[in-house]
């Protein structure tokens, strides 16, 4: 299909795919997965019918690629390991250290969730995808995404409260 260009999509969405894969795998070493994602997209470009947004389609490919790798290696022990952004600390160093400490505990809480809740937290909460985009990637209804997102946020809050990092209302 001439109307879709993998090169343009790479320019537009490579950063989003990389971010998703970093959060999803918990590793900074995702270059091969990013390349695989765009290679698979190139091979399947004729099957892309435009029913979803290209970014959503690419994230679905990336997600499926990771799941395939985990299945082959029988490793599904972690999905996210790093929530700390590349942004410099705002304010003084002490404030930055507190922010980093909070991210570490949030990461640990998310890591304790069931895989489907980890995925929805990453897609909705971290990557800020819409319910519709997330439902396309996870192959479920928007309503189910919203329910899972609400439940996952509640569970993360409970975990953080149990560990003494936030206090109940």
Brief summary of the model shown:
The protein has 169 residues and is an all-alpha fold. It has seven helices and no strands. It folds into two domains: 6-73, Rna Polymerase Sigma Factor, Chain: A, CATH 1.10.1740; 93-162, Orthogonal Bundle (Arc Repressor Mutant, subunit A), CATH 1.10.10.
Keywords:
single chain; 169 residues; mainly alpha; Rna Polymerase Sigma Factor, Chain: A; Arc Repressor Mutant, subunit A; 7 helices; 67% helix; globular
- For the residues shown, what is the average pLDDT? 78
Contiguous uncertain segments of 5+ residues: 74-99
Topology as a string of helices (H) and strands (E): HHHHHHH
Q: Write down the CATH class of the largest domain.
A: Mainly Alpha
Terminal-residue CA separation:
54 Å
Count of folded domains: 2
The fraction of residues assigned to DSSP E strands is under 5%
Q: What is the radius of gyration? A: 17 Å
Please explain how this structure is put together.
67% of the residues lie in helices and 0% in strands. With 169 residues, it is mainly alpha-helical. The protein folds into 2 domains: 6-73, RNA polymerase sigma factor, region 2, helix turn helix motif (Rna Polymerase Sigma Factor, Chain: A), CATH 1.10.1740; 93-162, Arc Repressor Mutant, subunit A (Orthogonal Bundle). α5 crosses α7 and α6 packs across α7 (142-162). The longest helix has 21 residues, at 142-162. It is globular, with a radius of gyration of 17 Å. The model is unreliable at 74-99 (pLDDT under 50).
């Amino acid at each position: 299909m001439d109307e879709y260009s993998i090169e343009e999509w790479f320019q537009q969405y490579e950063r989003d795919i990389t971010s998703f894969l970093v959060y999803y795998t918990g590793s900074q070493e995702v270059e091969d997965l990013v390349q695989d994602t765009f290679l698979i997209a190139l091979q399947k470009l004729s099957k892309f019918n435009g029913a979803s947004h290209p970014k959503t389609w690419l994230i679905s490919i990336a997600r499926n690629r990771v799941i395939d790798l985990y299945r082959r290696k029988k490793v599904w022990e972690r999905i996210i390991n790093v929530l700390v952004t590349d942004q410099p600390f705002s304010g003084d160093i002490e404030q930055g250290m507190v922010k980093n400490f909070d991210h570490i505990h949030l990461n640990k809480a998310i890591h304790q969730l069931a895989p489907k809740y980890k995925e929805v937290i990453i897609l909705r909460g971290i990557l800020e995808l819409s319910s519709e985009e997330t439902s396309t990637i996870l192959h479920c209804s928007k309503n189910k995404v919203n329910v899972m997102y609400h439940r996952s946020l509640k569970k993360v809050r409970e975990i953080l409260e149990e560990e003494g990092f936030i206090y109940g209302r």
